[in-house]
Amino acid sequence: MSGAGGAGGGTLLAVEDLRLHIDTYRGTVRAIDGISFTVGQQESVGIVGESGSGKSMTALSVLGFTPPGARVVSGRVSFEGRDLLALNDAGMRAIRGARLAMVFQDPMTFLNPLMRIGDQIGEVLVTHRGLGRREARARAVEALRLVRIPSPETVAGQYPHQLSGGMRQRALIAMAIVGEPALLIADEPTTALDVTVQAQIIALLRDIKEERGLSLLLITHDLGIVAHVCDRLYVVYAGRIMEEGAVRTLFARSMHPYTAALLASVAYDEDAGGTVSFIEGNVPNPIDPPPGCRFQTRCPRVMPVCRRMQPPRLPQGGDHAVYCWLHAPELPDVRD
């Protein structure tokens, strides 16, 4: 099992060797291909990667929100000691919104346009806590106040289309935390928001995590966000983990060429006349991925073994580990 204990001293979520395939008319997509990670009590963990890397599908799999045709081929998702993959629909519904909640990318997709904001937030408490409508509405207003929405009583009576993008995202966060979950999953929570609002939302998530003592799993492509929010980081590419460890360690001493390329793509030193670097090539076809290391087709340091064999998890001290043959103590013989 990869990962480490959390800030609170125990493991809250443990995903072990998760493999999820999606059957399509073109073939079987290997969306998640053997991912393992942990989130500890009161810990912030990031999963970062390009579009198509499988990071969002991993988050959706934890909650049981998989698309049509998707099937878990193997693995275990343990949350508070219970295997979520073994639960039926009723069992998952009892956990979602109560102990486990998610903030999605696009609030307009997940907010009901025909319900007032306060009623939507309160519905979580009616369903999971058995509260009456009046008490649930009062708690919804308090949740809106916690996410720093001005005039929360007024906003509670409004519909989603009456709010700005940033306000809708705050309302979605309020809906996620009102049930007092142990783990909050945020999937690209700043998508389509301007830079100023992005910073506000990220600061809000960080403060809520600290104030309410919950754990946070952040799904993002933005390493800048990770630097401000997360304790540990998993770098994902084409359905597999490339590198994992403390954020400070990976930023100071990244060892996988993909992690280094991601960091270089956001590093910019204007005074030194620097430019933003790009990763050439594309994420491989998930229906027919290359053998060996998934990053081999874009890696500037590829070796023959990389094209033949998948690298194992190679511990680098502490909770730092890399999946790369460059750091193997000895290379296997791949001669024909």
Describe the 3D structure.
- With about 325 residues, the chain is of the alpha/beta class.
- It is about 30% helix and about 25% strand.
- The protein has helices at about 55-65, 90-95, 105-110, 115-130, 135-145, 150-155, 165-175, 195-210, 225-230, 245-250, 255-265, and strands spanning about 10-25, 25-40, 45-50, 70-80, 80-85, 100-105, 185, 215-220, 230-235, 240-245, 315, 320.
- It has an 8-stranded mixed sheet with strand order 6-7-8-3-9-10-12-11, with helices on both faces. A 4-stranded antiparallel sheet has the order 2-1-4-5, with helices on one face.
- A hairpin with a 2-residue loop joins β1 (about 10-25) and β2 (about 25-40).
- α7 packs parallel to α8 (about 195-210).
Q: Would you count the extended β strands for me? A: 12
State mean pLDDT (0 to 100 scale).
90
Spatial order of the strands forming the largest sheet: 6-7-8-3-9-10-12-11
What would you call the structural class?
A: alpha/beta
List the helices and strands and how they pair.
Blueprint: E1 11-24, E2 27-40, E3 44-48, H1 55-63, E4 70-79, E5 82-83, H2 89-95, E6 100-103, H3 107-110, H4 117-128, H5 133-146, H6 152-156, H7 165-177, E7 183-187, H8 195-212, E8 215-220, H9 223-229, E9 232-237, E10 240-246, H10 247-252, H11 257-266, E11 314-315, E12 321-322
Parallel strand pairs: 3-8, 3-9, 6-7, 7-8
Antiparallel strand pairs: 1-2, 1-4, 4-5, 9-10, 10-12, 11-12
Helix pairs in contact: 4-5, 4-7, 5-7, 7-8
